[in-house]
Amino acid sequence: MGANFEIKYLMNKFLTKKLSIISFIFIPIIFLWHPGWLGFLGVQPYWPLFWLLPWAMINGSINGLVFGLFLGLILDSLTLDNNFSQIPGLIFCGFFFGRIKSHSDILVGHFRYGLICSFGSLLCSTLYLAQILFSNFLDGNFFMFIPGVKNILAEVFLTGLFAPFICSQLLRMFKFSRRKLW
Amino acid sequence: MLNIRRISSSRWWHKKKIWIFLGIFLFLVFVRISKGSLYKDFFYFISRPFWPGQFQKEVILKSINQESLLKINLLNKDNIRLREILSLQQSSNNDNISAAVISRKTGGWWRQIILNKGSNDGVEIGSTVTGPGGLLGRVNNTSFFTSSVTLLTSPESKLGVWIDRSQINGLLVGSGDDHPSLILYSKEADIKVGDFVSSSPASSLLPPNIPIGIVKSIDETSQSKKTAKILLLAKPHLIDWVQILKLNI
Fold this sequence. Notes:
- The structure holds 2 protein chains of 2 kinds.
- Chain A is mainly alpha-helical.
- Chain A contains 7 helices and no strands.
- A 6-stranded antiparallel barrel of chain B has the order 1-2-5-4-3-12.
- Chain B folds into 3 domains: about 15-50, no CATH class; about 50-85; about 95-249, Thrombin, subunit H (Beta Barrel).
- In chain B, a hairpin with a 6-residue loop joins strand 1 and strand 2.
- By secondary structure, chain B is of the alpha+beta class.
- Chain B is elongated and about 115 Å long.
- The interface between A and B is medium-sized, with 30 and 26 residues.
């Protein structure tokens, strides 16, 4: 009985402590799952930013940058485009989201998350489109520009729409798990 | 002379019956002028369940289907025989693997599907994936249990195809939307909207004669080449089951 209780206690402690890491694992899964009913014009919100924003806001720029890199590596491994990478955008976003923390310690209003995430997704997708355009430019093709802009707009809109709901919840969860640590 | 004074001032237009009569009359005039179109349309709706063609249509469609199936089989046999004579590439139907789509990214930047059959089931990198309608893409990556397919719409996809009618080879390039672009490196290439595009017999990546799509629109603004948008026959955002053709080239 005692051992059982201890295991339960340890499990609970582990879960609350590692909540951020556990939620990190879910990003690639939701990225692969790609639920069509959440999409707009066939485009999905940029899921990794929802996790990266609270993480970088709590842990700072360097942590944000490192985890941006990790996220980029994982997501690049899931997509088949070998020539294009999501790493630059995510690194920059991680760093930028961390700076927000250092400038203002007060809790950012829900709707500002939407704005910040929209900006982050605009940055990431523009960097991604730039890579595609550059690679196609070398081949002499310019087909990607208009669909690319459409993708960016849809992604920015959706990311901004979902960010207030998801980011504020995740931020609360991460803060909660940190408080338990101390 | 008696002065007859009216008790009530009743005029003909105060009578309801006259107005009803007038209404009906005008309606009939309208019917006459419109040559009974109202009647005909009304009849169209009420007679709909009793139209003669419905059952007959099904029977005809069924027999047309059977006829085309027979024709396809005959042509297939012919095709295989001729290909053997000319010693061209073969596409065999014996080594197909059926797989279900377990993850699907058909919009946005990444256009790929993940299938539930991997290297464990004998899927190889480079295998062709087809769905109802025609070609979907090629296997780009396999894990033990899954395989990832680059769709034709992906910006990374570049395949050699040809136009059946004029037998011109072209390059099918994914452009990140639902309609890949076909590039023909000749300004005089004979291409029309509605032309049928299939995999090229000259391609070293695909088995020959897999249906791909139909030419949707043509852009002739470039000086040196023609580009066309292709409407794909297989719809990756709807398909749940696909066939993986083993590489046999």
